[in-house]
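Colleagues,

For the teaching module next term, I've prepared a clean inverse folding example: a structure given as tokens, and then the sequence designed for it. I'd like students to try predicting residues themselves before seeing the answer, so please don't circulate the second half yet.
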């Protein structure tokens, strides 16, 4: 599965992925997930911009359909009903196969579920920033509603900008780039305790800290597929080990103590 957004690098990410799919001829082997709603040319989820955003994404990707269309409501949504009505047209026209949500509140998810019972497309997937160090975005009513609706949760920022991979443990290592600033935000006592717990469990299980962090996410109810970023083949090899990690109750308790 590949996940990107029309706003990443102003659409350049989609162009690169589209070229990769074309040159390798693997489109039918890939689940393609796109988040729309934040591109500067087509901002928001009003009917006109939503259709234009999807059309532009399809062009950049060089494909005729999106497997999972995430609707980005971070900047607000005029009406949930109008957005779902447009999504219905996109699904019926074959441009999108399933619809997910990003930035929706618990109340909006409830409203969307009510509308789905009246025939509108159902929001079946939820993309929400969530990891060991960032749990507030997916808590309370949002988590309860997602569970009650049996939504497939695909948490983004699975490694908190890479910090939970354990490669950068000091501000000197992180540098002064934008990513360095993001990493530095986790370099505190809580972050250090969490990395030590991941190190210890990883050593016990014979896997890297990143795999333990992914394994923790997969142990959470409703989580089906963490969204992870990789910058080298070695990163992918580390991350996929998380699929096979089975954390015991003792492991989960140890991680909870460290990250609280």
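(Answer key — instructors only)
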């Amino acid at each position: 599965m590949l996940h990107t957004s029309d706003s990443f690098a102003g659409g350049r990410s989609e162009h690169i992925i589209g070229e990769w799919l074309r040159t390798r001829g693997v489109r039918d082997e890939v689940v393609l997930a796109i988040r729309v709603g934040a591109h500067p040319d087509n901002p928001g989820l009003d009917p006109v911009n939503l259709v234009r955003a999807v059309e532009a994404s399809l062009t950049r990707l060089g494909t005729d359909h999106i497997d999972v269309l995430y609707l980005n409501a971070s900047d607000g949504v005029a009406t949930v009903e109008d957005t779902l009505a447009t999504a219905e047209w996109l699904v019926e026209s074959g441009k999108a196969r399933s619809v997910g949500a990003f930035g929706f509140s618990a109340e909006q998810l409830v409203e969307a579920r009510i509308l789905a019972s009246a025939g509108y497309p159902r929001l079946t997937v939820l993309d929400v920033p969530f990891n060991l160090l960032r749990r507030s975005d997916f808590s309370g009513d949002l988590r309860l509603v997602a569970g009650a609706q049996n939504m497939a949760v695909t948490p983004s920022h699975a490694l908190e900008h890479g910090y939970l991979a354990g490669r950068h443990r000091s501000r000197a290592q992180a540098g002064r780039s934008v990513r360095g600033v993001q990493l530095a935000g986790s370099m505190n006592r809580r972050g250090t305790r969490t990395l030590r717990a991941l190190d210890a469990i990883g050593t016990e299980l014979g896997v890297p800290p990143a795999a333990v962090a992914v394994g923790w996410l997969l142990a959470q109810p409703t989580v089906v597929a963490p969204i992870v970023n990789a910058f080298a083949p070695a990163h992918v090899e580390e991350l996929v080990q998380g699929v096979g990690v089975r954390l015991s109750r003792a492991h989960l308790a140890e991680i909870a103590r460290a990250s609280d």
